[in-house]
Each structure stands twice: as C-alpha cells, then as structure tokens.
Amino acid sequence: MTKFNYTAKDFKSAAEVRWCPGCGDFAIMNAVQKTMADMDIDHKDFAVISGIGCSSRFPYYMSTYGFHTIHGRAAAIASGVKSANPDLTVWVMTGDGDSLAIGGNHFIHLVRRNINLNLVLFNNKIYGLTKGQYSPTSDRGKITKTSPFGTIEDSFVPGQLVLGSRGTFFARALDNNMKHTQEVLTEAALHQGTSIVEILQNCVIFNDGIHDYISDPKFRSERQIFLRKGQPMIFGEQEDKGLILEKGKLKVVKIGENGITREDILVHEPSDDNLGLQVALINMTLPEFPVAMGVIRSVEAPVYDQEMKKQIETVQQKRRITCMDELLQSGNTWIVEGENCSEPVKFFDNKCFG
Amino acid sequence: MKNTKVIELEEVAIRFSGDSGDGMQLTGTLFSDTSALLGNDISTFPDYPSEIRAPQGTVGGVSGFQVQLGTKKVTTPGDLAHVLVAMNPAALKANALFLNPAASIIFDVDSFSGKNLEKAQFKTDDPFTELKLNDYSLIPVPITSMTKESLKELELDNKSILRCKNMFALGLICWMFDRPLDYIEKFIQSKFGKKSPLIAEANLIVLHTGYNYGMNLQHMTPQYIVHPAPIEKGTYRNINGNNATAWGFIAAAEKSGLDLFIGSYPITPATDILQALAERKDLGVKSFQAEDEIAGICTTIGAAFAGDLAVTSTSGPGFALKSEALGLSVMAELPIVVVNVQRGGPSTGLPTKTEQSDLLQTLYGRNGESPVVVLAASTPSDCFYFAFLSAKIALERMVPVVLLTDGFLGNGSEPWRVPTMDELPSITPRKAKNPESFRPYNRDPETLARDWAIPGMEGFEHRIGGLEKNVAGAVSHDPDTHQRNSEIRAAKVEKVVTMIPDLAVEGEPEGDLLVVGWGGTYGHMISSVQAMHKAGKKVSLAHFNYIKPLPANTGEIFSKFKKIVVCELNMGQFASYLRDKLPQFTYHQVNKMKGLPFSVHELVENFDKLLEA
After folding, report:
1. Do B536 and B560 meet the contact criterion of CB atoms below 8 Å apart?
2. Domains located in chain A, CATH noted
3. Does B475 touch chain A (CB under 8 A)?
4. CA torsion B508→B510→B514→B515, rounded to 10°?
5. A314 CA to chain B: closest CA distance, Å?
6. Counting C-beta atoms within 10 Å of the first and last residue's C-beta, which end of chain B has fewer, N or C?
C-alpha cells in the first residue's frame, strides 16, 4: 500500500531541460525521479540541493523544493538544511569537479559527519560547463584544453575518498543502466546516514565515450560485477567467474577450474565493517578485474542530524533555564535600586520599531 | 597607620599585567565583577598576545587587563592607568607609556632580577630609571616569595604554588579599593572546590595573604575610594560584547518563534559567540562547528533556506572567505545574519587587537552589485540589541544583514541593565501564506521583500539559486530583468531606512565641530566630546550604528555644523563612504592604526587643533 501513489512525472518541473542531447544526465534524472516517486514520501518534504556544473542544474528540472547554490558548496549548504530540519529528505546533485575539487573539503566532512542525506556524484572525469578541462577524476596523462601535453597528476578514486572519510555508504552505477541505477538509488535513500552514489556518466561533448569500455552493454556481464548483499561475487556471461581472496588480495577465478566451486566465492556483505575488502572492490579496474557496481558499503553509525536533535532534547529534559527572560536573570546578577537611581529606559524607545 | 594615603576618585583605571600564563585576565575579570557588584560602573579592556604562551618574561608575551571604575557612567576603560600591577619587568616595560602621571606601580620585586630584566631587554638593573618612572609611586611587593611562604605548609608542587601569585595581587588590589572578597572566594570554591580542594585552599590562602599584606603595610600603599555610580534601576549583570551578541540572537529567535541555527568556525576574536551559543542547547540552539569559514556561512544559508533564524560569526579573514556565499544570500534573498568581530588586518594581521578596517570589505567586498544591510554595535552591551535588530531586519525584509562589532567590544565588558523580553519589539518573519499566488520573487510593494516559503510547506515548492531569476523563479538572462533586479536589490536595502531611527546628536544640535564616529569607538568618542563640552567648546557627537542604509536625517544633521571630523580605527573608510553618499560636505579625519582603541586624550588634542585651524 502506498500513501501517495506518485509517479516520476510528479517530480518533473515545467522548466525546459537544457542538457546536451545524448547527455548521461537525462537517464540519471529519470532514475532519480522514479526513485523519489517510489519512496512514498510527501512531495513537500523533498529538498534538492546542488552546486555548480552541468549536473547542478538538476534542481530546476525537479518540481520539489530546490536550491542551486555556488561552486563546491552544495554539501555544506545541504548539511545546514538537513541539520536545521531533519524531517526533510535531502538530495545533493553534484559532479566530480564540484565535489572533489573546489568542494573537496565539504565533501569529506559531510561524509565524516554522516548527515542523513543522499549525494549523487556524476562522474564524467571532465569539466563540462567550462568546456573541457581535466578534473580531479581525470586519468593521468589525459589530454584536455588545460593539459595539452597530458596531465601529470593522479586522480581521486571517489570510493576511496568516501571510505577514507569514514563513509557509511558507497555505491556505484552507470548512467546507461537505469534499472540498476534506480536499484542503487533506492538503497541509498533507505540508508540512514550520508549515502554517496557515484554514477559513471558520459559527457557526450567533452569526454564522449570515457566509460565506454566499462559500460558497453554487449560486455556488461564480463566487465562489470554487480554486487548484491548476501550474494556470491560472481560475474561473466556464463556466471562462471568469481572473486576470491588469495594471500590477502582479490583474485578472479573460474568456477569449475582448479577445484573452485561456488562455495569458494566471496559473499558480498556491504553491512560488514570490512574496509580493506570494500576498498579492494572499489579499486578493481579492467582488464584484470571487472568494475564493481552496486552498494559496496552500507554500515550503521550515529547520524549527525539525529544526534544534534537528540542532544538538544537530552539537555532540555534537565534544563534549569527554559526561556530568554530566565537566561537574562541567571548567574551573577545584582539589583540596583535607591533614591539616586533613575527609571529604566527601554533601548528601543523613541525609535520607530513596531 | 600614620602615612596611609586615602584618595577619593570619580574614576580610576587599574591595569593588571603579567606573562600570558600569569592569569591576569582572570584576575582582572574577578576584580571587575566584584566592583560591578558593589555598584560601580565599569568598563574593561583585555589586551593579550595572540600566542597562547609567548616566550616567558618577554615584552611580546605580556598579557594585560585594564578596568576603569567610576562613580558616574563609565564609557571607556581609561586611557592611562592610575594603578599598574606588574608581575615582571616585561609587564612594566609594555605598559610604561600607558600610565597616569604619578600612577602607583605595584610590582613583584622578586621577579625584577637579572634574568627577567634581560629577557625584557633592559640595559641596566634599574628599569624604573631607564623608563623614566622614578617620580611614580613605586610599591615593591615580594609577591613570589610571600606566595611561597604562605603555602609552605601545603603539599603543593612549585608550579602550582607559583600559579597562585595572581591571587596575591588580586587580594592586595581588593584591599586598596576596599572591595570585599566574598565574590572571589565563591568563584574559587566553585571553580576548584570539587575537583581539587587543595588548589582551592591555596588560592584562598594567597588571596587573603595579599589582602592582609595591604592592610598591614598601609604606610606604603595608598587606598582608593570610588563610590557607587547612580544608574538606572533594575537587575544588572556584567556582559561582554560577544556574549551579548549571542544572547541577542537567542532573544530574536524566541521573539520570532523560530529555531536559532549558528554555523560557524572558530576565529579570534569571534569564537566566543559560537561558544556562547553552543552552550545554549537548553534553549534549543542548533550549533554547527563547520569545517571552514565557507562551510560556516553555507550551513547557515542552508538553515535559512530550511526556515531557521540562521546566523554565522567570524572576523576579518573569515569574512573574506565568506564573501561568495554572502553574495548567494543576496541573490537568493535569504535572511541570514553575519557578525564580523573586526580585528587588525590585512591577512592574519593582529588577531587579538581591535580595528575597524573591514567596513569597506563589508559594504563592497563581493562580486557584482551585492548590497547588504550593515549595522554596527557601539558598546559591549548594546551588541545584544543590535544582534536582535539584525535578525529582525533580516527576517522581516528577507535580506542578509552584516553586524560589525570589534575585538574591543567583543572582549570588553560592562555592567548591563538586563531587559525583559517585553521590552523588545516583535519580529514577524515573512512566511508565505497563499500557495495559489506564491511566486518565489513576488514582493511586498512597500518593502520589496519577497515571501519566505520553506521546504515542508505544502504547495509552495519552488527553486531558487545564485543565477539571476525572473519573478516566477525561472533562470533568466534577460537584459531588462537583470537591470530591474539589480535596482530592486539595492532599493530593498535602502528601504530598511524605515525600520531604523533617526541619527541622534549628542550635545548641541549645531556648533563648530561635529564629531562623527561609528561602531565600537563610542565610549572614547563620547568621553572626548564631553570633555570638549566641559571646556566650553561647541562640539557635538554623531555616532553611527546604521551604516547601510544611513539614517534618513544624516545630511540635515551634518548641515548644522561648521566642520565635520570622522574618527575611526582605519585609514578613513567611513569618511570615504560618506564622501560618496553625502558629497556636499567636507570631512576631516582622525585615524589610528595601532591595534588599540582611541584615547580620549588624543581625540581631544585633534579636535582642538581642528577648532583652531
């Protein structure tokens, strides 16, 4: 039984969507709107916050409350929104430049505090809105307008940053797999705490095809491994490949070869506080490994906005001061009276305050 | 008893001075509180180095606390001290220039030895001759050895014993000024009593030893009498500017029926505001210590978007970092208050010293045409009212407000007649009411304020942001829209003039010289103008709390005086703002960039020169 019977349409605004034709953002937006409709939460309680960049135009295309802010600061502004009103369902839409370069500090501190909101990180490994400069997720050697001879720096791996910041939830999806994206976003929405969803997104103009090798639907099951809670880490067209740990390292094995059976394959437990394995999964790259998709980590931890609320409630249960007048009169005060004293004058007297 | 000198004074300034670890701030504060409780009006000025523990015994590491008490309204902590307590030679050196002629100098004779003299870079072993202080009333007191002697029965280590030295000085000063010790005793008991009874006992013993020392050696110590000040009836408390600011916001939240949110980052000298608010979970304050200055204002903007009374506190360098986000709140037209407790700049500058040099940054330091309302508090206690008023303006006019205070106000304290909430005006936030007619940038035709619809309110769902918008809230790069909106944002700030009182003149409404000041210099300004007045000069004061917009009658007031002089602790920022806004007048200037407040003496001297010219 659903309370509201929303469809994705209920979350679309009348504004004309102005992303480039073929942009991966369209698919992501559809997945987000579908996910929100399925959450069965009152439409008025959604707030979508973004920074600056192509993906950050997102709030304008939503019919919810929205705030398109300034470059890099969406995480900080959303932190304020959610702390002020924990009853809201807050989503942050951001890109690799917005969140990992100019907003890197806010990003890691949001994750560390574990504020209960969902952050969708559109990772296209390029600056799109400024027309094609390298980003903090561009691979070493990438040739762009600001790196005509190739970059000489290594990139961030977003999942590493999240787990390094004590993140409680990290998931990965691809813009061309809407069904899976939606599945992952639903998990993110349900998680209590900061949920970071990295979506590998294609910039059709300035970095077209950057994720093609991973995302090619023809090789999806060979090049991607879909991790699901409680399921063995198996992939491949024939579902005959899996991951095991050998000498502390992940290794791809073939079921049925060298005596390997399904029982030998690692079972995915995102709710275990197993940082080492989860980082290893995040780090997997082609061609040695498939790229990990799905919810890689989802653990429980105290949630900042709830803790803030709780602390106020706890203090208030034992409070001795209940209002401003009592505060003003508290502590070291003394009374002045007597003949040579004058009558008190209100500060705002004779001034035009209503 | 034959030589006891009893001096009756209307006003007396006392300066406690020692190493930054000597506990001088506490000593000064306890003495001030005791005096206020006794009915004296007081004004205090803590003056300390930016290092927590600068090298011991050096002039750079000297920490001072000056308090002036009086039988009348005290408006400044005093230019020059009547009594100096110097715990070491460096303290003497640092303060030699700030003493009244014939001041009493109480010094710890035990610490005026070779090594300490060297550290303070004295060339001889006679620092008083070197500093030409021989004519002053020199009172050598063996503070260190008496402290040690009085505690020899207790099983205390040497370090803990030496940390009681300040209580000796405090006891002695209390005797000199005929202050009872009960308040201080209570403080010591509640601070150390439970945790370390031995330390409490030691402090109490030394406090009494100092007091008795004064009594027993009356022949060499003058005693001062300062009668209580006749003031307004009511309940009083001591308050510093930062606390008053914090409390003004809590009062505004209560008045407006909103929750109070502060997003902030620690920075000297503004940190106390965040601390004072973090303490008030009992009144529901949500305090968020952000990861940096930018997140401080950004969480604040987020909280304002979500419907809280949202404020952030900072000082100059932090204010610079907040510029871009402040511009966002101008564009999004969200009600936030930013407090800038100004300090010496540029860059890290003089973190613990006062200055008024952020005025132009506040008025103009953002990209684009980005007007905000600017207020400035002028005494430690009126920070309460101006914080309250900043919140009222922000909430009723949907506009960001910057409240300027400074290190002198923030750390300085004075007795304050506490108001009741009934005395404060109402605050009516502009909550949107009708979802049918709501559009994000619909405005009140009078005030130009837009309506505030917050997430969770049904039927008002809308989008705002940093991009230029049309009335419906859609992004618009239309040339006419930008022109119109730029004019509206400016006019909206100007229309706040209807919420602020006329500029008042202290003194005659016309005359030879109008002294103009703003913000935290008020105490020194009014004292100097009163001094001029007493001397029969036609000098009046116009002190500004409302910077943008300026009070409506500013030009009219200015036109009644032959000369105008603008005094400020910068190189002339308010003067140049006035030249821009009211170019028909000629503005003389008195400026000071020493990290110190004005002295009444230097102001009077400058005014005299102007009158003669």
Report:
1. no
2. 8-231+268-305 (3.40.50.970)
3. yes
4. 10
5. 9
6. N
Q: What kind and span of H or E run contains B36?
A: helix B24-37
Residue B3 has pLDDT above 80, yes or no: no
Q: Is the pLDDT of residue B7 over 70?
A: no
Q: Tell me the pLDDT tens digit for each residue of B345-383.
A: 999 999 989 999 999 999 999 999 999 999 999 999 999
Sort out which chain A residues have CB atoms less than 8 A from B264's CB and list them: none
Average pLDDT, stretch B478-483?
Answer: 97
Report the distance separating Cα B338 and Cα B361, nearest Å.
Answer: 13
Q: Does B234 touch chain A (CB under 8 A)?
A: yes
Do A336 and B417 lie within an 8 Å CB cutoff? yes
Provide the mean pLDDT of chain B.
93
| Distant-in-sequence, close-in-space partners of B345: CB < 8 Å, separation ≥ 6 | B316, B317, B355, B357, B358
Model pTM score: 0.90
Length of chain A in residues, anyone? 354
- Predicted confidence at residue A354, as pLDDT, reads 44
For B231, the closest of A45, A62, A341 (CB atoms) is: A341
Q: Can you give the pLDDT at residue A100? A: 98
Nearest to A106 among B295, B324, B426 (CB): B295
Contact A336 B234 (CB under 8 A): yes
Question: B282 to chain A, minimum CA–CA distance in Å?
Answer: 5
What six digits make up the tokens of A170?
A: 């990290």
Residue B229 pLDDT greater than 80, yes or no: no
Count CB pairs under 8 A between chains A and B: 245
* pLDDT per residue as tens digits for the range A240-268: 999 999 999 999 999 999 999 999 999 99
Largest alpha-carbon pair distance within chain B?
89
B298 to chain A, any CB pair closer than 8 A? The answer is: yes
Cβ–Cβ contact B599 with A under 8 A: no
The DSSP string of B432-493 is: ---TTT--TT-B-TTT-PBPB--TTSTT---EEESS-B-TTS-B---HHHHHHHHHHHHHHH
pLDDT of residue B38: 84
Mean pLDDT, rounded, for B407-417: 91
**Closest listed residue to residue A335, CA positions, set B418, B267, B435:** B418
Contact A88 B286 (CB under 8 A): no
Whether the pLDDT of residue A87 is over 90: the answer is yes
Give the best residue of B286, B300, B382, B502 to mutate against chain A (max A CB count within 10 A): B286
Please report the DSSP string for B40-87 in residue order. Answer: -EEEEEEE--SSTTPSTTSGGGEEEEEEEEESS---SS-SSEEEEEES
* Of A190-204, A220-234, B81-95, the least confident: B81-95
Tokens of B584: 């028909």
Please state, in angstroms and rounded to a whole number, the distance separating the CA atoms of residues B49 and B353.
9
Nearest Cα neighbor of B290 from B318, B332, B258 is B318
| Percent share of chain B, pLDDT over 90 | 78
Q: Which amino acid is at B318?
A: G
> What whole-number distance in Å separates Cα of residue B376 and Cα of residue B382?
10
With a cut of 50, say whether residue B2 has pLDDT above it: no
In chain A, the N- to C-terminal Cα span, in Å, equals 51
Whole-angstrom distance, CA of residue B465 vs CA of residue A15 = 14
Can you list the domains of chain B with their CATH numbers?
6-225 (3.40.920.10), 237-423 (3.40.50.970), 505-612 (3.40.50.920)
Q: Nearest-CA distance from A252 to chain B in Å? A: 41
Q: Closest approach of chain A CAs to the CA of B191, in angstroms?
A: 14
What three-state secondary structure class fits B431? strand
B36: nearest CA in chain A? A334
Question: Mutation test of the interface with chain A: which of B183, B238, B254, B283, choosing the one with the most A Cβ atoms within 10 A?
Answer: B283
Q: What are the strands, taking DSSP E only, across B474-560? A: 505-506, 511-518, 539-544, 546-548
